[in-house]
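Below is one protein, fold included:
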Amino acid sequence: MATRRFSLFNGSLLQDTSGSVFLESINALNTNDRYPSLAWAFADTSTRILLRGSTRVPGDYVSAPRVGIVWATAATSGNARWEFDYTSIADGETADPNADQETVASTVACAGTARLLKFSLISLTAANLAPEDIMEWALARDGAEAGPLDTIAATCWVVQAFLEYSDT
């Protein structure tokens, strides 16, 4: 069984209209500035803030789908509440769904040291995806969730998000 990964970050990305999710230079997080790049900043709010996108499910997809979120924060304590909403759309199905096919979530403690990366993996339902489907998705930091709570009192920067799956 081979595990494959590919980035969800592509030209389809669109942040919500709150102004609390935005593309920012990673220099805002780092102090050394040796490798400047961009990351998606998710501000500390008491609301649910989103980054949306779409991608094609790879033709060799078979099973075991997971969404990976690679993130960091300057905070040294607290939990981040990440949610992933998605709908997988096949040929002949509506491109304008009125609900998510599935919402999955994970509450993860920050690294405990400022600027250390965290790799958070969230499992999806394998039967929801099929090769060549278009997956519409939203990645959320949910400060409004009653429990478990998002308790990081700082911005979280998402440097990568990917779909991981098995091709056998």
